[in-house]
Amino acid sequence: MMEVEVGHQNVLLIHSEGEYSAIGNQCTHYGAPLSKGVLSGTRVRCPWHGSCFNVKTGDLEEYPGIDCLPCHKVKVQNNKVYVSINKKSLRKSKRLKDMCSRVPGDNRTVLLIGGGPASLVCAETLRQENYTGRIIMVMNVQSDSILMRRMEFYHQHDIEVRLHKEAVSVDVEKKIVTFDDGSQQSYSQLLISTGCRAKLLTCPGVHLDNIQLLETPEDARKIHYSCVGRMTVIVGTSFVGMEVASYMIDKAKSVTVIGRNDFPYQKTLGTEIGKLTMRMLAEKNVKFYMNDSITEIKGEKGKVKEVVLKSGVVLPADVLIIGIGVVPNSEFLEGSAVELDAKKYVIVDKHMRTNVADAFSAGDVASFPLAMLKDQKVSVGHWQMAQAQGRTAALNMLNKQVELKSIPFYWTVLLGQTFRYVGYGEGYTDVVLKWKREDTFLAFYIKDNEVVAAVSLNYDPAVSLVADRIASGKAISKVEAESEEISWLKLP
Which residues belong to any copy of the Rieske domain (predicted)? Predict the structure, then answer.
């Protein structure tokens, strides 16, 4: 596998299973060079975010990308390999799969509640698989600017988009959803992909002005403008809290972070990596108050002025940003026959079916069986898994009997440094760390003597290699993880 230049265009030339093929070299998600990724059989995995592409067709086979790659003609003659590209392909780094349109007279209706990645991929997959019925995507947002595709795309492929609507109830027997404006929509099949919302603090003062949650692009803009030049306090030391703290370092007057554990990310990434992330931000003058929590928010003229901690410390604050977890958007299902778990996530099987006929769920709101954990029920709030679930739901709406097999893959960025994570490490008992330098490592998370997750910093494509190994069904033992040589990982 190597990158070659054809007509000033970078192309990935692959020799796999005795054949040569050529596809675009830039991952359609964020432009990573696939030549530095992982080749396994007929697919290549992106070294940055784990998207997978078929090397024979360029088709997207694993997310978070949403587009396919161009595929080019290859000819072998006189022991030389020739790649030819037509002029149209030369200008394109992405490709859409062929999609059908609605056919008049097909009276089926798929109703998608929610407009995020799960719904988008579900809608696209249906059209790619020649579903010619009606597709309606309903979401409670005020602007089409949040959509993952341009509105023209939805029009072109006969996907109806309805904004400003929130589902308030579902009658699963009559197959009717009622919305907050009093309107109703019948369906043949339903996808519940309403996601989650940010959890709010429950202490006094929580409704003062300048208390911010991060849920939408508009929230991000508000946080930016409200924090510039001001004393910013952040509660929560997982992904949202730490990313916001990192972003605000050179913008806010001061940045203070409050966490309930000894170190950031302690439950997910462990003590050593938590220490590292804390030190990274502390060196940029971020102040941490760990093993603490907020008991009261004091205000002046309706705005935040001080944050009172359980320890008795009082912190001055112009802005308070809350990043303490999420709550599933499933209240509208209460009273329906759709089964929820104790935390109010929608329970689905490996086909993304709920307990109710013709009702599916996908994305952050779903509790699903994770194949790599022997079908243990989990909820994963990440882009890639939501997309995979949307595709699985669509295929099973068409009775394809496809099971969800994806491995969770996500990332976070602090001070321009990207931490990559694969697997599901909840309940891990040991962490095996492989350090190259202070800012370069690979960590394995062990449970029941097997690797259940891995995280890296500046160690590409290690996490993609681990993802491929886990996806292949070959367990990584604790002994392998602990070995001084990790040649089994086949790092380039």
Answer: 1-83
